[in-house]
Amino acid sequence: MRSLLSLAVLAAASVVSAVSVTGNRLLVVLDDVAEKESYSKLFGSLADRGFDITYDTPRSEDLQLFHLGERTYDHIVFLPTKVKALGPKLTPQILLDFVNAAGNIMVALSATTPASTSTVAFLAELGISLPQERTGLVVDHFNYDTVSASEKHDTLVLHNSKPVRYDMWDVFSLRDDEFLALPHTVGHTLGAGELLTPILRAPSTAYSYNPKEQTEAVDPDDLFAAGQQLALASAFQARNSARVTVLGSAEMLQDKWFDTKVAVEGGSKVSTKNAEFAKTLTGWTFQELGVLRVEEIEHRLKDSNETNPEIYRIKNEVHYQISLSEYRWDAWVPFNANPNDPPQLEVSMLSPFHRLNLAPEEHSATDRTRTYSTDLILPDQHGIFNLRVNYKRPFYTYVDEKCTVSVRHMAHDEWPRSFVISGAWPWISGIGATVSGFVMFCAIWVYSKPAAPLVKKTQ
Amino acid sequence: MAVAQQNALLGPPSQSSRTLLRVVILLFIAGAAIASRLFSVIRFESIIHEFDPWFNFRATKYLVANGFYKFWDWFDDRTWHPLGRVTGGTLYPGLMVTSGVIYHILQALTIPIDIRNICVLLAPAFSGLTAFAAYLLTNEMTTSPSAGLLAAAFMGIAPGYISRSVAGSYDNEAIAIFLLVFTFYLWIKALKLGSMLWGALCALFYGYMVASWGGYAFITCILPLHAFVLICMGRYSRRLYVSYTTWYALGTLASMQIPFVGFLPVKTSEHMPALGIFGFLQLVGFIDYVRSAISGRQFQAFLITVLVATFGIGLAGLVALTSLGYIAPWGGRFYSLWDTGYAKVHIPIIASVSEHQPTAWPAFFFDLNILVWLLPAGIWLLYKELRDEHVFVITYALCGSYFAGVMVRLMLTLTPIVCVAAAIAASKLLDTYLVKSPSQTSTSEAGEKKAPKSADKTASPLGVSSMVSKLTIVGAMIVYLLMFVSHCTWVTSNAYSSPSVVLASRMPDGSQHIIDDYREAYQWLRQNTKEDAKIMSWWDYGYQIGGMADRPTLVDNNTWNNTHIATVGKAMSSREEVSYPIMRQHEVDYVLIVFGGLLGYSGDDINKFLWMVRIAEGIWPEEVKERDFFTARGEYRVDDGATDTMKNSLMYKMSYHNYQSMFPPGKAADRVRGVQLPSEGPVLNTIEEAYTTENWIIRIYKVKDLDNVGRDHFSAAAFDRGQKKKATKKRGPRVLRVD
User: Fold this and answer.
1) Is B739 on the interface with A (CB under 8 A)?
2) pLDDT single digits (tens) A151-188
3) pTM, 2 dp
4) Contacts with A126 from chain B: Cβ below 8 Å
5) Do A383 and B84 make contact, defined as CB atoms within 8 angstroms?
6) Mutate: best of B554, B709, B711, partner A, most A CBs <10 A
7) Tell me, what's the ipTM?
8) What is the sign of the dihedral through the CA atoms of A147, A151, A155 and A156?
9) In 3-state terms, what secondary structure has residue B562?
């Protein structure tokens, strides 16, 4: 009965958690709660995916991100607000604490509203810089939407967007015939940090300027950024795998930009992929996509049944395997790593002694995990080693698993015996000769009759 | 003296009652030896002392829990993280095995005694045996029956030996001194009798000694030296040949059974004298044989040829083998025995140990008292007779005195022979003035109370046998001996009975106040940190952390890896930016330091700091420089005038972090260095304070994890303090991101 009950609880829990790995409480911070109507499709999609959405304004009295040290929300969406700072409930410190407590944040900016100082300070800590004076507008005189921005060229139309590196997961890529419209975009630049990854970069002909001050021309020294250095949407994944995304154009999430048709210069009108992009972006940010889970780690002596022993011997043959699964929207599926970039096993003490590719094992269609494994021979060095899988790839949550094992020296009775070593045979026979010689000498000594004294004989 | 008193009460005793008396007296001496070592247990508690004993204790527990073979193959993964230590193969197992055997015997006798108590009381118990061994050794030297008992009494209470054998001082020396003296006794016995049996026994105990203490090399060098001196004196005999070759062959085989020693006896220079004398003895034996076979003139030519050829070949072979690397040259510790400044220049790690410093002259008197001036008298008395065994005592005393003068710790090896020689001198004196009067032939063993009375009758006014001189000499001797006893007791009680884990101080009203910061800190570690939390501290505290806190350490008192120690030294003496990656690489979770500034405890890490710097400089002369820690005028300062390198070093920051908050503003003072500290305390970014004990003696810091959002710790800490990032209006080339 009890097991049935717990099973029911478990089932209920799995239904609730089916939405996102980290929880379903979503807070949307906007200027006016009524404003949510213009984003109804986006929030409708989120609600359909099981999120429990709360709308609030930065001025609200009872807005609280932490209660008794625990997060009260799992995810936050910041839409553009007109306030200069977000107030004492949403200071940069609190936002950083929220990320440190594994909460996810999506910041949507707009060129029409200056970003709040809190947001700027918060993003600056992550290594994301916004334009001076908190305002900026990205224009591109070659890739603009001729329908809505034929004059100002401030609605960018992107297509054929590829990941920044060929071996990355192409979750946000756009085909050549898929178009995104980004109206009134604020660009940002990324620091050199390895936790940051650009999602959308501006076309090489785009640049950012301040529409209030730089109305005539942009002095090259004052240029914020241009071309590929200018990111329009970026992802940040903290070391605890909490995710922060920055989107330069909040308006592209509005209903009207989901349905509208755009056209580049000389092209025909096509409908945008904004809705799909918004779904992917929110899904990734709120940990519905690209979440890796280590199901099981097993290492053992080859031909032994004892799993995960704490101590091995030098030069032991060891089998290591790790099972990984990936969360995709609502289910855990086997994780298939890029065959050119598989997870690797490090056998390290101070520095790695081995770094080995882990090969995927065969698996059936019903499996929810995929097992990666390798066989290795431990180094000829005793010490405390870490069997470590350090798999950190953009857009996937980090896998950093360390199994600490001691590798001991040869015990006194594990060396080959002397008679097995052919080089020792001369010495062994030497010992034998000495011993038998001594015994023979003793025997002769003991059993030989002493010679009669010479004097007696002569008599 | 004791025997004299006993005898006086009973009158002229028979042979059997004398034997009984001796046994009783020896038992009393053993009792006194044990009792005087119990001060620490009575004052404090039954606790293991100091540093090394904590490791021995831990190893013994492992032995008792896991059995001998596990112990033999023990790979210790809780020290020297992450290298680990092949403990079973790098220790002298004699001490632990002895305790283990005693434990199992007592268990078999159904006496349930805790292994800790066996460890605590092992040294006092063995001191009783040492007294007995000294008795036997002295009896081999002289016919005077009282000399042996005096030697036993001296041995039992001499502070030079007590310093390493009080209850709780569970170190190798606890049993090694007994083995040393007993091996020497067996050697003398073998030499006197020319007996293979005694030679084999000597080898057996030599093997036990090798299994117990690194100081076995002393025996390995003293016995050949003795043999060599005898040969040079023209005292070669069959007895010497038999006893030496038996000892050397069997003893070397026995010593090679210890994994830590292994092939050292045939590979290192320290063991070469024994091998050389072994060969030399064969040669001398052969020559001896030839001399009896051929004529005088031929023999002389033969002798010269053989001697020159052998020495030439032997020496050339030794040099060649050494330069080819088959024989290890003399070790650093050995060089420091000849040149006391050697270690300080070349091997700072050896010089940094206080017990490796040269001995101060008062220490001789402190540790030996009247025995110091009885020793030359005893040597002279032996020199007058100069039998083979007396040569041994003289050789030993000369070498021992030299070594004791070079290294504080070697006072221990000198003490036994001082006791023997002093007992011979004292007994000669007492025998002469108590019994050797012409009219007193019948009571040759008369006691002192009786002696003055009987001396009355003879009434000769002058000379040795006069009443006056007897009274004066004997009275003076009694006073000296009584003073010796009281000195020994005083020294034992005041200098050698502190566990140094617990500090004792006096309150203003005279009551004792216990400062228990060490155990407080170790207990905190034990209860509040993960089982495998790695603790970084200076190596002095490694064994204690392992024993009391049961946490893995980076370095400990078994200083086998100088580079690893230098790494810790570098982490302690560098800026945080340099230290942090080192600590991350070694997976350090906590850093433990000792700080005496608040209490005035002078043995703290700031005072040891220069050794850390020197040892680190030995490996990274470019990165750590001792000069940078001294001011321009060459002063080592911690106050406002300290150098920037000093102020930025991790050790300085950890020591004085938050210290200013204990005092009114600007009044912070360091009571060890006696200086006023800067009003602004140091700021730590990469580590945070985890625990500080009641008297601030131990401070524990936790190493922070990498920043969650990828900042460096300095900007993260600045952000937490509320400092805003400056709006950077950059000029010059832009920093572009490359994906």
Assistant:
1) yes
2) 888 888 888 888 888 888 888 888 888 888 999 999 99
3) 0.86
4) 709-710
5) yes
6) B709
7) 0.86
8) positive
9) helix
